[in-house]
Amino acid sequence: MAQGCLKCLKYTMCFANFLCFMCGVAVLSFGVYMIINFNLTALTPSLSSINIPKLLLISGIVITCVSFLGFLGALKENRCLLLTFFMVLFVLMLVELTAACLLLVYENELGEWVKKDLNDGLDKAKKQRGNSTSLTDWDMVQDTFDCCGIYNSTDWGTPVPKSCCKDDCQGGPKYKSVGCLAKLNIWFEKNFLTTGIGVIVLCVIEVLGMCFAMTLFCHISRSGLGYKL
Q1: CA–CA separation, 7 vs 15, rounded Å?
Q2: Backbone phi, then psi, for 227, in 5-degree steps?
Q3: How does DSSP classify residue 25?
Q4: Neighbour count for residue 133 (Cβ, 10 Å)
Q5: CA–CA gap between residue 157 and residue 154 (Å, rounded)
Q6: How far apart are CA 150 and CA 156, in angstroms?
Q7: What is the reported pLDDT for 116?
Q8: Is the model's pTM score more than 0.90?
Q9: CB-based contacts of 175: which residues, under 8 Å, 6+ apart?
Q10: Cβ contacts of residue 144 below 8 Å, gap of 6+?
């Protein structure tokens, strides 16, 4: 009976890690797609080296590597791989919890930093009006969030990008009255609960993965198959 339960646990862990591996491949592919088609350095200059596409790329690589490690360790019943899988999940969970705590503690400072960075990005975009890529970053945000500038359309001076217009400015220049900073704050407030739930679910999945890995590790240690390949 116990042997059957452990076999079930082994293949459940293999299946779960296979699903995580496929999700990691999807995230990795989406990150590569965004790197090829989008450039967000003009929007947030100080985050040019860690923008959203690169974060997706890094996240996809981490997910695929960790899930493959867990899949192979469970399938081969390799004690070394399972212990490595456990330690990596433990470190990732600590990093996630630390990042969440820092975001809560330094929420006000983070808001001021975002404002400054957006101002720098807008100034850079205005200086490079001939560069379509720089304006496209702001156009994408202004179209997505139905906003204009940081606070309002006057942030752009003249000329104002077409993405600030209502109904393509037909019949005269009618610009969107709400700034992107306010719209971004509203968006983050609406998605704060969803993000928190997502982090909790992720931590629960990581804890379950660590429990499964340690259970298999202990069973393999007792059976003397510690480094079976």
Answers
A1: 12
A2: -125, 35
A3: H
A4: 12
A5: 5
A6: 9
A7: 84
A8: no
A9: 148, 152, 153, 160, 164, 165, 166, 169
A10: none
Which residue, 58, 106, 101, is CA-closest to 199?
Answer: 101
pLDDT of residue 99: 83
**Does 68 have pLDDT greater than 80?**
yes
Residue 148 has what DSSP assignment?
Answer: -
Minimal CA–CA distance to 86: which of 201, 221, 215, 222?
Answer: 215
Categorise residue 149: left if φ over 0, alpha if ψ from -120 to 50, beta otherwise.
left
Structure tokens at 144: 């997505």
130-138, long-range: CB < 8 A, 24+ apart: 133/39, 133/42, 134/42, 135/42, 135/161, 136/39, 137/38, 137/39, 137/40, 137/41, 137/42, 137/43, 138/42, 138/43, 138/163
The total of other beta-carbon atoms located within 10 Å of residue 217's CB is 21
Q: How many Cβ atoms are within 10 Å of 71's Cβ, its own excluded?
A: 21
Q: Would you say residue 64 has pLDDT above 90?
A: yes
Whole-angstrom Cα Rg for the chain:
24
pLDDT confidence band for 228 (50 / 70 / 90): very low
Per-residue pLDDT tens over the stretch 46-63: 665 556 677 788 888 999
Give the pLDDT of residue 196.
79
Distance CA 15, CA 201 (A): 18
d(CA 112, CA 179): 16
Q: Determine if residue 39 is left, alpha or beta; phi over 0 gives left, psi from -120 to 50 gives alpha, anything else beta.
A: beta
